[in-house]
Amino acid sequence: MSAGVPVLPGRDLPPQPFGAGWPAYWRQDAACRDGDPDAFFPPDGRNTKARAAAESRARKICSECPVQRPCLATAIFRQEEHGVWGGLTSDERSSVVPRGRLSAEDALLFADRLLLPSSASIAG
Question: Rounded to two decimals, what is the model's pTM?
């Protein structure tokens, strides 16, 4: 069993949980699968410097991950309130993703816009 995140025990979803844009079993290919859970979900009570360092480690892993797109889209679609998913923290996601439920297709499109190099103006 993996200690990595966001491949969490008990949270298995069907092969294409939200539609054809998600690769089958994408979590199995996640770079974070065997990583440090504290990097992706720093425990509450951590000071700002330690949290920033943990999130920086998570972002580095995400930047090299082959399934960064479906990971970020999943967080957007499910409105994940915690953790680093697809390289963005929950605060970053909530500041750039419109409030309200997005369709699975819109979540994928939004993830694409956030991950493209030209999307720097959207995120910052």
Answer: 0.75
